[in-house]
Amino acid sequence: MSFLYNYRASWRFRRHLTAFLFAVNEINKNPDLLPNITLGFQIHDTCYSESLSIESALRILSGTRYMVPNYNCHKRGGLAAIVGHLLSSPSLSISTIISNYRIPQISYGAMDPSFSDREQFPSFFRTVPNQLSHHQAIIELLKHFGWVWVGIVASADESNAKSSSLLREQLISHGICVEFHVIFPVDKGETKRTNVLIKNSTATVIILYCNIGYFLQLMIGEHWEEIKGKVFVTSVTLTLIRENVYNFKTLYPLNGSLLFVTRRGNIHGMKDLMDYVPRRAIRHIEGMLFSLPSDRKGNPLNKSNSEPFRLTYSVYTAVYAVAHAFHDMVSKARKQPGFLSTGQWLRHFHPWQMIPHLNKVQFPTQSDGDFFFSDEGEMPGEFDILNCIVSPDGKDRMVEVGSYRSHPAQFHIKDSAIGWGSPYTEAPRSVCSSSCLPGSRKAKREGQPLCCYDCVPCEEGEVSNQTDMDYCMKCPKDQWPNKRRDRCLQRLVEFLSYQDPLGAGLGGASIGLSACAITILGVFIKFRATPVVRANNTNISYTLLVSLCLSFLSCLLFIGQPKPLACMVRQAAFGLAFSIAESSILAKAVTVAVAFRATSPDSQLRRWVGPRLPIYIVIGCSVGQAAICLAWMVLSPPFPDYDIQSEKGKMILICNEGSAVLLYVEISYLGVLALLSFTVAFLVRNLPDRFNEAKYITFSMLVFLSVWVSFIPSYLSTKGKYMVAVEIFAILGSSTGLLACIFIPKMCLILLKRGLSSKVHVTGMDNK
Fold first, then answer.
1. Beta strands of 79-203 (E only): which ranges?
2. Distances (CA, A) of 377 to 111, 127, 356, 373
3. 49, 159, 368, 695: which one has the fewest Cβ atoms less than 10 Å from its Cβ?
């Protein structure tokens, strides 16, 4: 078995070597795991270099200190597997060489998502999660604190550059914007520019995607110590090694940072060894591994002392995964017929035989649960979140503040336990634009990321009740926004009611005027024998008074909350009643004209003189209006509706006329009857002065036409309940004009000047 690592970097990486040797020692001393088999090893130092990684892989295949391509010079034992590398890029370089021979490779730190492709990497395994689960953990952290404006700094090695680009795509797909994504090489000028970019960025949160070698270049580069007020979120690939940081100023920019690390695992007895062996004596650790240290009295130390490790634990489990897979393979081989001895079987052993056993390997660990590889040859996504706290005296500590588990998905963080560092006393904001308060919405800025926006007030009739809403919501039709437009209020329902002073006044006027019409009708009936009543066509006068009374009363249908029946019949009732009134007036005018034009014995008009002509006129003209109303009711009947556009914050209950065209046809028909009446009455205006019926009709039609001509612009310019009031005014005004102009003079003759109502006065003749 071969182990690839970086020996020269730090004590922490040397601890990986210690864990490897410690696991080998435990396995070889375990009589139940690999009986009669000793697990050997080779150790190769790659120093982060991809070229050295390839060179080490070739040496492992050759079995000597020198590279001999296509030759196997192993003198003792055979190669079972390669453990390593920590980083993805060297692991990829190694896999490119050894995958041709299908030699199992178990990395304890490579998280590149491409290694999950079992067709491309069938012999690659890892004791750490896939990078994609780490990306999801970062996204959950950013979403938890509402950080939607971040920067990404990645090292120029292939693995971190590719993973950071993939992270950028995933951040954008989750609505998190990236201010900048810089990939820097190990170059003094580039590290300086990168530090200046971090320092001057508007993003508070910076995601570091690099290994320790690249990161140290940033920390010793120019302008690093000037970076303030930033929260660094580090990837698992970056393990901060504090012994490499030499002064407080270099370390302080990391104050308040959040670090993702792999899960912890216990290795019993590992801490005893680490405490016993001085850091400077690491080169001699191999000779000390095969007997645990003893105390001052010579008693061996027990293995009860358990210390949690992270990447060190990944190295430890990688070695045990090889041992258990080999154990399963040997156990099955011993059960096969023809098995002679372990030694003979080992002579025919090939590394590729380990792969199916590694795929199915499962064994209990010193931590909770069993160890096993997923179908992709990796571990489930489990990460802890550490908070880096740097005190003013230069001391630093790491505090565990949260965790993430991918199966099942769980994210937990203790906000109160996080120390954010100066100048923050609570979680800082990292946004491109300030939050849009309720009552406004986000409007994207052209040419900028989605997270950069302006706050635009909600339009009329819309509200937003949360911060940073992408759109405003329309209020229900019966509601209206308040002044701040952050919630909907109930609209004030309004209609022309009897409780309204205007409605009560119009209703009272309607009843009063109809009472006047009925009173006049009563007087005419009482004095029906008088010449004044008989001279003005008694039956037509009765019909006219009744129709005017109905016209007045039809106004009551326009007042009150609109109901389906009232909406349907009110215009028809007014139109029919008024058409009968105008037909009666037209009949009066035509009767007068015919009567005075047919005085000659040979006149053709004499056959029209009599009571039949007025009846024909009234019935014929009324039937025309009835046809219009019937068509209206059938084709597009009026119905109750509401108006929310006329007045803000109000819902005005109205009757929708169904067809505005038919409404104007009805009114136009009344206008035509009025014009005919006016024309006929005007033509006979020069009758004897004592017979003033034609003049009264002429004047009443002038009043009628004046009222309805002024009604149209008034109706169109009025809104809400006042539209109804305007129509009622027109009905009452025109009806009152007819009643006053035609019947008031006659009432004066009948009631006040009875002498003038005699036959002599009416006809202008005496009996002498």
1. 82-83, 105-107, 124-126, 149-155, 177-184
2. 12, 8, 11, 5
3. 368
* Nearest alpha-carbon partner for 670 in 730, 716, 713: 730
Strand, coil or helix: 450: coil
Tokens of 277: 């062996």
Question: Tokens representing 660?
Answer: 């505005």
pLDDT value at position 205?
A: 95
Residue 15, phi then psi, degrees to nearest 5: -65, -30
CA angle at 174 for the pair 170 and 175, rounded to the nearest 5°: 120
Biggest distance spanned by C-alpha atoms of the chain: 169
Q: Which residues of 617-640 are buried (b: 16+ CB within 10 A; e: fewer)?
A: bbeebbeebeebbeebbeebbbeb
The Cα 354–Cα 22 span in angstroms is: 22
DSSP 431: -
When comparing pLDDT for 70 and 521, which is higher?
A: 521
Does the pLDDT of residue 765 top 50, yes or no? no
Lowest mean pLDDT among 121-135, 239-253, 399-413: 239-253
Among 274, 48, 289, 293, residue whose Cα is nearest residue 160: 48
Residue 530: partners with Cβ closer than 8 Å, 6 or more residues away = 750, 757
- How far, in Å, CA of 185 to CA of 193, rounded? 11
Residue 180 DSSP SS3: strand
Q: What is d(CA 480, CA 487) in angstroms, rounded to the nearest whole number?
A: 8
Helix 88-98 vs helix 50-62: crossing angle, to nearest 10: 30
In the numeric block, the tokens 């590729």 are attached to 352
CB 104 within 8 A of CB 23: no
H or E segment and range at residue 535: helix 531-535
Angle between helices 693-717 and 564-597 (to 10 degrees): 150
- With 60 as the cut, is the pLDDT of residue 355 above it? yes
Which letter, b or e, does each residue of 655-681 get, where b requires 16 or more Cβ atoms within 10 Å of its Cβ? Answer: bbbbeeebbebbbebbbebbebbbebb
Q: Which residue has the tokens 């009563």?
A: 522
> At 32, phi and psi to the nearest 5?
-95, -20
> Cα(759)–Cα(50) distance, rounded to whole angstroms?
133
What would the two tokens of residue 696 be?
A: 């009264």
DSSP state of 294: B
Residues facing residue 261 across a β-bridge: 384
State the Cα–Cα distance between residues 18 and 14, nearest whole angstrom. Answer: 6
Average pLDDT over residues 366-374: 83
Report, in angstroms and rounded to the nearest whole number, the Rg of the chain calculated over CA atoms. Answer: 51
| Distance, CA of 620 to CA of 626 (rounded, Å) | 10
pLDDT digits (tens, 9 = 90+) for 625-675: 899 999 988 888 999 988 888 778 888 888 888 888 888 888 888 888 888
CA atoms within 13 A on the CB side of 562: 25
Q: Are 16 and 108 in contact (CB under 8 A)?
A: yes
In three-state secondary structure terms, 76 is coil
Residue 282: Cβ within 10 Å count: 15
Q: Is 154 helix (H, G, I), strand (E, B) or coil?
A: strand
Q: What is the mean pLDDT of the chain?
A: 82
pLDDT in tens, 138-192: 999 999 998 999 999 998 888 788 889 999 999 999 989 999 999 998 888 899 9
Q: What is the mean pLDDT of residues 56-67?
A: 77
pTM of the model: 0.64
Q: 533: how many CB neighbours lie within 10 A of its CB?
A: 21
User: Of all residues in the chain, what percent carry a pLDDT higher than 90?
Assistant: 21
CB contact at 8 A, 523 and 750? yes
